[in-house]
Write a structure and sequence with these properties.
The chain has 464 residues and is α/β, with parallel strands linked by helices. It is built from 17 helices and 21 strands. It has 3 domains: 72 residues, no CATH class; 119 residues, Rossmann fold, CATH 3.40.50; 260 residues, no CATH class. The strands form 5 sheets. A 9-stranded mixed β-sheet has the order 11-13-12-14-15-16-17-19-18, sandwiched between helices. Strands 7-8-9-6-10 form a 5-stranded parallel β-sheet, with helices on both faces. Strands 2-5-4 form a 3-stranded antiparallel β-sheet, with no helix packed on it. A hairpin with a 2-residue loop joins strand 18 and strand 19.
Length: 464
């Protein structure tokens, strides 16, 4: 089996490999985003032999004590953009929500790079107290993980980059807290780094791993890698994910002492997913001023928990809604906050259509970010109630999208799209995304099942 199996070791090195250790030594778990089938044994055999398996493409196989062990990683659509960008810039900064798979992707794409995690207290102390020694221990090219933990290290990266601006692919920085990361990058690395965003898994990435997953199960489980590649129970996962965010990240970002109003605010947002949120109306339900709520919402957005879909100003009417709609980056978290615990509960929930819309809008957002493009996504709603769920701006072309959770086509689904195309001379190729059959054209509108649609380069295509 060549270089895929049988290599002594007890530590995860600077490569996307899984290492177990001989009996009596610490056994390192697989990196996030890697699944073991069956799970790794508690110990290796009596001979004390460890093993190391390189991951190639989606999976690699090895043997422990005669038992086959299979390792799989869900291949990420951002891979090509990340590798090409590293060849074009001396520094690339990879941001995104916690546990979205940034570390796994970085180490998968660049197995020969040195790796330093600033979550490690000893590594962090070295970076703070002796940056020269830090870079000596972790020579270029290097992945520096959780860069927001020591934002001042970016000044040292700047100095090293400026010594030779022509060299590319030297530093890959990752981070989850956008405020600290943005400030550090804007002050020290302006003009020296490209910034990419890794969101949770896309529909395409999940379907490549679990092609038969039901729609309601997908709305419940969401798109976090660990839920799918490690088979984690979604309610337990999102409870711990949310608790970690509130207790660790939020206290640091907002210095909130009484968490109850904030947790109430999060639940209220989940109940308004895909809607325009009037913060003034939420003050009575939270006991917090609208100014404070606006600050919390900005923090949630900066931390990649939610995102805003901005309004589009159309020729249809000058009296349009001018406030953004709110969506969760992870629809599974929204389902958890709504108290949904089973696919059956999702199927009966009055907000199922909103959750489905959240899924589709977030997936189109991911498709744009995964090819390094600006989102350029909007919605339209007039004060009289006319609405287009999503408008994709591609150059000068406006592509309207209607989103329905229904599995059966209805001609009424296309009415708003046709009206928008009549009113807007730059509108073209209207699209209905729903849970039904694919049709090349119905009433002048292309109809696509959300599993088949792909909002990639050039405005979209079809999942294979």
């Amino acid at each position: 089996m060549g270089d895929k199996v049988w290599r002594q070791g007890n530590a995860l090195g600077n490569s996307p490999e899984i290492t177990t250790s001989p009996v009596g030594q610490t056994r390192h778990p697989p990196p996030r985003g890697i699944r073991c089938i069956p799970p790794l044994p508690a110990s290796i055999g009596e001979d004390g032999r460890g093993f190391k398996i390189k991951l190639e493409n989606y999976a690699a196989n090895g043997y422990v004590g005669g038992n086959q062990v299979k390792f799989t990683m869900i291949k990420r659509e951002l891979t090509q953009e990340l590798t090409e960008t590293m060849r074009a810039y001396p520094v690339v900064t990879l941001t995104g929500p916690r546990q979205a798979g940034k570390t796994t992707l970085a180490r998968w794409c660049f197995p020969s790079f040195s790796y330093a995690s600033l979550e490690d207290p000893q590594v962090r102390e070295l970076a703070v107290s002796d940056p020269v020694a830090f870079f000596a221990r972790y020579p270029e090219p290097v992945i520096i993980d959780e860069i927001q933990r020591v934002p001042e290290i970016t000044s040292w990266v700047q100095v090293r980059v400026d010594e030779d601006r022509k060299r590319k692919g030297r530093f890959l920085l990752t981070g989850s807290h956008q405020p600290e990361l943005h400030q550090a990058v804007s002050q020290s690395l302006a003009g020296r780094t490209a910034i990419l965003n890794l969101m949770p898994l896309s529909v395409s990435e999940v379907l490549g791993h679990e092609p038969q997953i039901a729609t309601d199960a997908l709305l419940l489980r969401g798109f976090m890698p660990e839920v799918h590649d490690q088979g984690m129970e979604p309610t337990r996962y999102y409870r711990n994910y949310y608790k970690t965010y509130v207790e660790r990240d939020l206290r640091q970002l907002a210095q909130i002492r009484n968490l109850a109003p904030f947790e109430r605010f999060m639940t209220l947002l989940a109940g308004r997913v895909g809607q325009v949120v009037n913060l003034s109306r939420l003050t009575g339900e939270t006991g917090v001023s609208s100014t404070t709520l606006a600050g919390w919402l900005s923090i949630l957005e900066a931390s990649f928990l939610v995102f805003r879909l901005q309004p589009f100003f159309s020729n249809i009417s000058k009296r349009t809604v001018k406030s953004p709609k709110i969506y969760f980056t992870e629809v599974g978290l929204a389902s958890y906050l709504l108290g949904l615990e089973t696919p059956q509960q999702v199927s009966r929930d009055p907000l199922r259509g909103n959750l489905f819309e959240n899924l589709v809008v977030a997936d189109i957002l991911k498709s744009r970010l995964n090819i390094g493009k600006e989102p350029n996504l909007f919605y339209l709603r007039t004060e009289k109630g006319f609405e287009v769920d999503l408008i994709m701006r591609e150059g000068r072309t406006l592509r309207p999208v209607e989103i329905k959770s229904a599995a059966t086509f209805n001609s009424e689904f296309t009415a708003a799209l046709r009206r928008f195309c009549t009113a807007e001379p730059e509108a073209a190729d209207p699209l209905l995304i729903y849970d039904g059959e694919n049709f090349p054209e119905r009433n002048g509108v292309r109809c696509a099942n959300f599993r088949a649609w792909r909002g990639g380069a050039g405005g979209g295509g079809w999942h294979k």
